[in-house]
């Protein structure tokens, strides 16, 4: 049964089928979510614990280690890193891609409950977890400013009202409020006054705590009424704390205001937030893993008017950095490229056929195939993103191939004098098997991509599914709609009068005349090539060798660096810097950034536990208004930052795709691990210094910070015991005076505020002040601290980092202009070996660099897998072991064309280029399929010799070969020339396809017939040993299609 004949004979049914495909696709298009890239985030959870005043070593020992032991047993955990700082620690947990994040969160919560008994009993805060990846860039940054409100009140509104409401938005993982601190009552003690009155710090802490309580008082009730008992047990303002009586001396009360300054202030004085040079409170919004960025941001923006109305009118809430405009602009540009590619492909068809009616047929097939694909993508829960739309843009070049082959063959019969309907029936039956072979073998190319695991596999999977869906829809259209339209729309042609009569028709017919001249020239050069077969065969082997050589020298990268117009920076200052000095350097950095002509907004904050670090965000002007790329702006600022001594600011452009869970100062990470901490620190320092000298790396820095200044107190335990001082009491006094200790809580209707106690500023600005500290001994005496300890200077770690429960140091780096990630990683490996690092120190790439190294090793296997699958599919279709080799012989020239095009344009060989090569495996072989299928038919039906058959096939199939190749090239052209938003992500794909198609088209027109003839000789001489008699010719399948 001839299935194509059924659709040709039933135009109404075929039209309705086409309309149904289009309608289903349009509905799917309107319902699909929008995203920058496929949703391939690792399930990530961040755990945070706090113990105010604890050193990094203490946090790592008594807080992090117990948590790592319990959390590390969770199934599906692939990466666990931790970072401990003063008073705070963070654990980043990454799970397997197939792990459900909600299930992982439940397991984490159970592990935290199990570890609670191993943590200090007096822990002020329980460990908390959030479903976020701390290494992911924020999706929104907002500022709150006011000309009249103090920073504490602005921070209170931000934390109490705005952040809480934002956290409730679906998709939001965390809202970090930075640049300030909550209001608090601060008690700043005068150490000499305490000594003169004979009061201990513990006396003060106990008195304040006892004078600010909020506990149940009970009720009074009789048979008729009920009274709630309450009192003024809470002191809520500094005014109420100042007159508190602490003790009596000689009958006179000693009040808090006599020995301390008591002020309404903020909980932490050492914080700073700036927006374009002005004080501001920052709200930094991060999304949950797998949450859609655009949908989450849209939900946030929808509630902003209500949020502004819920805070004081004198406070201005403003969105300063939003990641979605660049995403929307990038998607708009790729949609425009899709439209341009469609128009160019239609023009190619028109120029070669020279007939408006003929050109309209593929003009219908292309949009129907592309729109119909959206229906399949919607059912597969895919999104409209850069990769899916790029796949459709490329698909315009080969979804039309099936229609072109079908149309060209039917047109050829009409030009011979057959009526259009009869030509459609005969022509469709002749090439149906060819069309099926082309489509099925093209889809087969993507099978290895569909089976790939890991992050890269997930990303490729969507690309492969989109292309496969487009090819299959186009196959249906080419076997149904295209032959039906050919039979109904095309006009009969008199073979004796093929030249158009009217002047405008002759002008439009110039493409046909051009093609005829090309065809004549090709036939002459083909004759010459067939007379020099050995030379042509040598050329084929030369291209195979060139592939290996060119691949070894081409720069290799991972993903193209996107210019999103958003920069994220990390300030790293000297490890012994004070907050006052850090504040000045932070202000200087932001002033420099603000002065850059391409900067639109600059915001930053510092403070909290990371005393020598800060964060800066820069929003660049829109692409049409700025004159430099993100990388050029970073290079320009890097030079100007040298004017700031004692601190560095490392910038990197925000990327839509980021890997790993560790926060770093630069984009790429190299982690060192060892069992012995001191050995690790020694070698980490040597390796960092050596790497900083490499020209292949920029912004080399390390998270190893063990040179912070420390005042080490060595307790004389015998003397301390004799004087009635124990280490616990000593630590408590030190924490009371120098740790901004929270000693009480003030309960308000909307929030809880703290009472903070520490020594007054004059008494915590020098280590010498420790000698003026007194401790209340158990014998009732005031004991000077100097009597029980020896004070000596030393160095302290600002952070303690672990990876997989072991000590680790991470060196981060960026790439200078013109250097690929492959060159950088090779340089690091080379330096690691040259230094003679002992086996006890292990180095490994992490994050994006790790995924790059893994993908680099799998790329040859991926290409080989695609070739094997295509060979198997072609062997099945042609029932031959020889003909698939002829078809695959077209690929080496495409590989050479890809690498040469990359070298000429200065592009790297990256994942987008790899996608282009996989596509070329499917596209380039179509030329050989068209030739070989026609040649086999000619041998069987006309009794021609192999030489005569392949020569006739090359000439007769020259037009569809040239048309399909040019259609594919013009489909990729908008991507190769794309300089719009996000164009750096798409250009390598377009350049790879153009380069591969251009060279392969030029060479395979000559190498394919030569290989066909050589393999035919091999088959005739040796083939009987490896083949079986075929009962049913493979090509007879076409009669049923």
From TrEMBL:
The chain crosses the membrane at residues 12-35, 337-353, 360-381, 431-451, 463-486, 535-554, 861-878, 911-936, 957-977, 989-1015. The keyword Cell inner membrane applies. GO terms for molecular function: xenobiotic transmembrane transporter activity. Keywords: Cell inner membrane, Cell membrane, Membrane, Transmembrane, Transmembrane helix, Transport. It comes from the Bacteria. Its main location: membrane. It is found in: Cell inner membrane. InterPro entries: AcrB_DN_DC_subdom, Acrflvin-R. It is a multi-pass membrane protein. Pfam families: ACR_tran. This is Multidrug resistance protein MdtC. It comes from Ferrovum myxofaciens.
